[in-house]
Amino acid sequence: MQDHPILNELEELRKKGLESLQVVQDELGLQNWKVANLGRSAPMTQIFSQMKTVSAEVRPLVGERVNQVKKEFEAALEEHAAAIKQAMLNKSLTSDAVDISLPGRRPAHGRLHPQTKMLREIYRIFGDMGFQVYRARDVETDEYNFELLNIPAYHPARDMWDTFYTTKPGVILRTHTSPGQVHVMREYCPEPIRVILPGMCYRYEQISARSEIQFHQVEGIMVGKHVTMGDMKGTLTDFARRLFGANARTRLRPSYFPFTEPSGEMDVECFVCHGAGCQVCKNSGWLEILGCGMIHPTVLRNGGYDPSVYSGFAFGMGPERISMLRNQINDIRNFWANDVRFLEQFS
Amino acid sequence: MKIPLSWLKDYVDIDLPLDQLARLLTMAGLEVDEIHTIGLPIPHSDHSEFKFSGLEWDREKIVVAQIDEVMPHPNADRLVLCKLKDGTGEYIVLTGAPNLYPYKGQGPLAQPIKVAYAKEGAVLYDGHAAGLELTTLKRAKIRGVESFSMVCSEKELGISEEHEGIIFLEPDAPTGMPLVDYIGDAVFEISILPNMIRNACVIGVAREVAALTGKTLKKPVPTHKATGPSLKGKIGIKITSPQLNPRFAVGMISNCQHAESPYKIQRRLRLAGMRPINALVDATNYVMLETGQPLHAFDYDVLVKRVKGGVPTIITRTAAEGEKLTTLDNVERTLKDYTVLVCDTEGALSVAGVMGGLESEITESTKTVLLEGAAWNFINIRKTMSYLKLNSEASFRFARGIHPELCPEAIQLCLDRMAEWTGGEIYSDLVDEYPLPAKDPMVTVTTNDVTRWLGIDLTADKIASLLRPLEFVCTVKGNAVEVKTPPYRLDIGEEIIGVADVMEEIARMYGYDAIPATRLSDEMPPQRNNPSLEREEMVRDLLVKFGLQETISYRMTSPEREARWLQPVDKSAIDLDYVTLQNPIAVDRRVMRRSVMASVLETLQKNIRLSNRLMLFEIGQAYLPQKDNILPTEPRQLAIALSGRRETPAWDKKDNNTLDFFDLKGILEELAEGLHLEKVSFTPTTADGFHPGKCASFTCGDVTLGVFGEIHPLVKERFDFLQAPVLAADIDLEALLNVIPPLMTTSPVPLYPPVLEDIALTVDEAVPAGKVEALIRQTGGKNLVDIRLFDIFRSIQIGAGKKSLAYSLTYQAPDRTLTDQEVAQIRGRIVKRLDQELGAKLRA
Question: Which residues form a coiled coil (chain B) (predicted)?
Answer without folding.
Answer: none
